[in-house]
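TICKET: design request
STATUS: open
ATTACHED STRUCTURE:
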């Protein structure tokens, strides 16, 4: 049997799992964190708390988006974002204010997507964590 290559708990895996959950697609990816080694019958990789870090990020984004001037809040927290817009917008032929609005929309969509799957998504990950702790 082939060993899984995806850990299941890093930020990339969490984003994959979240995106699939948002669209109602069953995630059939074999994850190291939830697959047991035939020899040891224990999980192959311990789980760091990437989920907590990502959920904190979502709350930070939500707080910034709820302010009267969200773009200024993003630039204050992430100063390089202004330079990205200044350098990228002309390159792709977009007005900087349009790019700013699109980025704000993207962050808003990201927060809303987490909101739509958060309960079931977190529950599944917490169950994975409980399985790991029982067998560790």
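STATUS: resolved
RESOLUTION: sequence designed for all positions
ATTACHED SEQUENCE:
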């Amino acid at each position: 049997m082939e060993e899984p290559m995806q850990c299941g708990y890093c930020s990339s895996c969490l984003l994959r799992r979240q995106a699939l959950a948002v669209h109602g697609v069953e995630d059939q990816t074999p994850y190291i964190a939830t697959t047991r080694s035939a020899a040891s019958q224990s999980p192959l990789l311990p789980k760091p708390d990437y989920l907590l870090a990502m959920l904190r990020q979502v709350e930070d984004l939500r707080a910034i988006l709820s302010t009267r001037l969200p773009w200024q809040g993003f630039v204050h927290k992430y100063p390089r974002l202004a330079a990205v817009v200044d350098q990228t917008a002309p390159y792709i032929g977009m007005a900087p204010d349009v790019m700013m609005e699109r980025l704000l929309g993207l962050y808003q969509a990201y927060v809303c997507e987490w909101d739509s799957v958060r309960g079931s998504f977190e529950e599944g990950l917490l169950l994975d964590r409980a399985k790991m702790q029982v067998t560790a």
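CLOSING REMARK: Residues 11-135 form one domain. The CA atoms of residues 58 and 111 lie 6 Å apart.
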